[in-house]
Specification:
The protein is mainly α and 66 residues long. Helix content is 44%, strand content 0%.
């Protein structure tokens, strides 16, 4: 008796061990890409320091009037 419905072992839909391994690594890659992309975005928009702002003398804590 020969089997006519022989599926190759490399078929993605039939071999759950290989497909689950592939989907796991794909998920890990996507999560790592998302995290690294977010870190890069935060790095590019980081706080550059206190800007130089000129405050009027009458608006200071101890006002200076002319």
């Amino acid at each position: 008796m020969s089997h006519d419905q022989h599926t190759p072992e490399k078929d993605f839909t039939k071999n759950w061990v290989n497909s689950s391994r592939f989907l796991f690594y794909l998920q890990v890659f996507c999560i790592m890409a998302f995290v690294l992309g977010g870190c890069y975005r935060l790095y590019k928009q980081r706080y550059k320091g206190k800007p130089e702002v000129e405050v009027q003398g009458s608006s200071k804590y101890t006002p200076e009037y002319k």
